[in-house]
Amino acid sequence: MTTDRDLARRRLRSQHLSDPAADAEQVVRSLLGVQAENPSQSAWAVATRTAAPDAGDLETALADGRVLRTHVLRPTWHYVHADDAAWLIELTAPRVLPTIDQQLRPLADELTALADLVVAILAETPGRTRAELSTALADRGVALTGQQLMLLLAHLELHLLVCSGAPRDGEHTYALFAERVRRPRRLERDEALAELAVRYLTSHGPATERDLAYWATLTLGDVRRGISAAGEGLASFEHDGRTFLHAADAEAAVAASDAQEGPTAHLLQVLDEMYRGYQDSRWLLDADGVVPRERETAIGMALVDAQLVAAMRRTLTAKAATFELRPHRALAEPELDAIHDASARYAAFLGLEPRVVFASVG
């Protein structure tokens, strides 16, 4: 009999956590979108899904423009492959933009002029940080608060005018979308809905139609349209009163997911796709119901054998990466060993020594 834990294990594989990808570009292309609100934490979200985590891997893909960091899918940052940016933004922006534009209402009468000014500044000198854009606008007599400028830039991203430029000293920059994506791939709406359904359910499946609607900020009607158009590319099954969908050719992965020996742990941010990539069936991560259902207070989580076993907080110093864990239940020795292995991988990626601190079981 299939259990919640079985399905969570399958997600580890479809998301490359137990079946690593070759590099950062492949991770982003495969997952279609990787939430990237926190650049430091999200860099690990990508790297941990590769066979050989390397900080320079994602940095190079961002610098080359193969991967972009921009607003898409929901009103927040995501890494997205340059080949997918245009069609994915065009598909999802109409339902995301109202959230951004509502907050820009005080600037509504000036929005077109401000957009033209930012585009002109970036055309003159691309690769500007937000602080540099603020200064350039001030020099032209336009004073915006940091929040207003951030929202304005998100508005421009969702109109395919602006996107990420090459990072400079680890800092995010902005450039013109047309300069970074010379030959944007565009799809008709029905074609885009079908591709979205297949690629999300391949990279995040098994998942429900409501999971996809949440992830891409689409209506259930649009999601069902995409699933229907995908036809034989998708398969489904019933579990616990819900219909779960996945790529039609994913059945071979089931045995591979069940065959892994010993628990494997992952230390991740709560924005990670394993958590934030779902809403309707998110709690497959907690088959035993030990995690409090409340607003997230920790910025991280520890997964062992695809189950959320502890809240995690990461602290960095010049020498060490400390992972403070607050378990949701008592952990067995093999689980503790797996967590220490995960901390060593994460710290090695950061070039630091690993330290694990356990608080009392909460």
How would you describe the overall organization of this protein?
The chain has 362 residues and is of the alpha+beta class. Helix content is 45%, strand content 18%. It has 15 helices and twelve strands. The strands form four sheets. It has a five-stranded mixed β-sheet. Strands 1-3-2 form a three-stranded antiparallel β-sheet. Strand 9 (300-304) and strand 10 form a beta hairpin. Helix 10 (189-203) packs across helix 12. The longest helix is centred in the first third of the chain and has 22 residues, at 82-103. The two termini are 31 Å apart.
Keywords:
alpha+beta, 3-stranded antiparallel β-sheet, 5-stranded mixed β-sheet
What about the largest sheet? 5 strands, mixed
Question: What is the straight-line distance between the termini?
Answer: 31 Å
Number of strands: 12
Could you estimate the helical fraction of the residues in percent? 40-55%
Residue ranges: pLDDT <50 for 5 or more in a row?
none
User: Helix/strand-derived class?
Assistant: alpha+beta
Q: What's the multimeric state?
A: single chain
Task: Describe this structure in a few short sentences.
45% of the residues lie in helices and 18% in strands. The protein is of the alpha+beta class and 362 residues long.
Q: Which helices and strands, and how do they pair?
A:
Blueprint: H1 4-14, H2 24-31, E1 34-35, H3 39-47, H4 55-64, E2 67-71, E3 77-81, H5 82-103, H6 111-124, H7 130-139, H8 146-158, E4 162-164, E5 174-176, H9 177-180, H10 189-203, H11 209-216, H12 220-230, E6 234-239, E7 242-247, H13 252-258, E8 265-269, H14 273-276, E9 300-304, E10 307-316, E11 320-327, H15 333-350, E12 353-358
Parallel strand pairs: 11-12
Antiparallel strand pairs: 1-3, 2-3, 4-5, 6-7, 8-9, 9-10, 10-11
